[in-house]
Specification:
There is one protein chain. The protein is of the alpha/beta class and 476 residues long. Helices cover 48% and strands 14% of the residues. The longest helix is centred in the last third of the chain and has 21 residues.
Length: 476
């Protein structure tokens, strides 16, 4: 393996994912919910941006100045092309972490985000990242980390080791990573079929291997077959980040009302007895067997007063990002599925059904006509944000400044959709980030931009590209 990869898989493409947790508007909402002072984000940095979709959608759709780095030159090249097309000014490089993090020309940042990096780098690179955050994150600034969590991965750690060692020692040279992955999966499945004591003591492993078998090989390569892979508890992450003066702020999942479908009454009572928030998070992970965490960490947590929190919530703009009829209040958890309950959901959804941004204060006025108080409207709005139906929105001045950039990057991505099904997000000047738009609807948008009128015209135009590539549509 080439030295520049630092043990990370580089011979199969990383996906073109978008991660809303990296949107600074999202952290503002999470901090308001937690009652914490949030930073005004002017300068932001994403470490390990992959194909660069998140960093570019955020740079195009918001006034934030974005910097970013990813070790893979092919990924950095595509990311820089997106930045050039959008005219966003995002500064994106392909330097090793040690080189990028040592740069003297970088500003101090209000926000530093890492998605899918923390668990897949070496201890040495984690130390470099912590030092970078210590030096470059402003006082009051926020860091976002997503990472594989313990205890959810505890039983899988030795299985992953088996797959990696088979790939390295017995994988077929010259046949590529996909062949090595398939060989490793077959090897582990044959081992488990012998019913070793490990399987008897960890019966969930058999189902996990079946799930793994069904995943795209590109996902498996980047998830399981890097040299470094270190799932850790939230307490272990906190111990490392304490060196950068960071403390746990909140989980990005805190907006969603999941306790009712995740925890029994006894478990909720047990958690309520714990005074330390970090210990509560660790215990919660044991209760739900959490495998992946998405957390915000802050350099100098300060609490809002009740008045300050209420005022900031009333000023917060939100927008409905799903069709009103498609919004489902059904949620899924460890105990099964349930409905999020409350009489404020329908009035809030009805008020936002025209997809125009409104402040929570405006929603409060509408709710008051239906006999709802401020607390009920806030709870419903934040819960709808937690399940992805509602998103925080920028002010109108920021929306108008972003429109030319988002139009340019969206046109580029939609043209990619003519021959590829890899791109599932476009930039929104309203949300300051990405919105899910499938390939077919992107082709319809291209048709509209070319002057095609009505569904029949859009469909005929889109169909040309399917025919061109010998593709067919299946009903339902």
């Amino acid at each position: 393996m080439n030295d520049w990869t630092a043990g990370y898989v580089a011979d199969i493409d990383y996906g073109y994912g978008y991660y809303k947790e990296l949107n600074p508007l999202r952290l503002r909402l999470a901090f308001l919910n937690a009652g914490l002072v949030f930073p005004a984000v002017e300068d932001a940095c994403e470490l390990g941006f992959g194909q660069g979709l998140s960093v570019n959608l955020h740079a195009a759709a918001s006034p934030v100045r974005w910097y970013g780095n990813d070790f893979n030159p092919a990924q950095a090249s595509f990311a820089r092309e997106l930045a050039r097309v959008a005219g966003s000014g995002a500064e994106l490089t392909d330097q090793p972490f040690a080189e990028f993090c040592a740069r003297a020309d970088l500003p101090e940042f209000d926000f530093i985000g890492l998605h899918g990096i923390w668990s897949w780098v070496s201890d040495a690179n984690r130390d470099i990242i912590v030092d970078f955050i210590a030096r470059k994150l402003k006082v009051g600034g926020v860091a976002f980390l997503s990472y594989n969590a313990q205890p959810g991965w505890a039983a899988m750690v030795p299985v992953r080791e088996l797959m990696l060692r088979h790939s390295e020692l017995l994988g077929t040279a010259g046949h590529g990573i996909v062949a090595r992955i398939d060989g490793a999966l077959g090897f582990v499945e044959r081992l488990m079929a012998t019913k070793p004591a490990f399987v008897r003591n960890n019966p969930q492993i058999s189902n996990k291997l079946k799930q793994i078998r069904g995943h795209e090989r590109s996902y498996l390569a980047h998830e399981y077959f890097n040299r470094d892979w270190a799932p850790m508890t939230v307490a272990s992450a906190a111990e490392l980040l304490r060196r950068a003066k960071l403390e746990f702020a909140c989980s990005t999942s805190s907006l969603a009302p999941l306790d009712a479908v995740n925890l029994t009454d006894e478990q909720q009572a047990f958690l309520a007895e714990l005074p330390d928030p970090l210990l509560r998070e660790l215990v919660y992970d044991f209760m739900v067997h959490r495998q992946f965490r998405c957390d915000y960490w802050v350099k100098g947590a300060r609490r809002l007063t009740a008045l300050e929190q209420a005022e900031a919530l009333r000023e917060q703009r939100v927008v409905l990002v799903q069709p009103r009829a498609d919004v489902s209040l059904k949620i899924h958890g460890q105990l099964g599925e349930g409905m999020i309950e409350g009489e404020a959901y329908a009035p809030v959804l009805d008020a936002l059904a025209d997809h125009r941004a409104r402040t929570i204060g405006q929603l409060e006025q509408i709710g008051r006509e239906r006999g709802l108080d401020f607390a009920a409207v806030v709870a419903a709005t934040l819960a709808l944000a937690g399940i992805g139906a509602v998103a925080p929105a920028q002010d109108e001045a920021a929306v108008e400044r972003a429109r030319p950039r988002t139009a340019a990057i969206n046109q580029f991505l939609a043209r990619k959709a003519r021959s590829s099904n890899d791109f599932h997000f476009l930039a929104s000047p309203v949300t300051g980030g990405g919105i899910a738009v499938d390939r077919l609807h992107q082709l319809f948008l291209l048709a509209r931009a070319r002057g095609e009128e009505g569904p029949r015209g859009w469909a005929a135009d889109a169909w040309r590209f399917f025919e061109m590539h010998g593709q067919r549509l299946k009903k339902d």
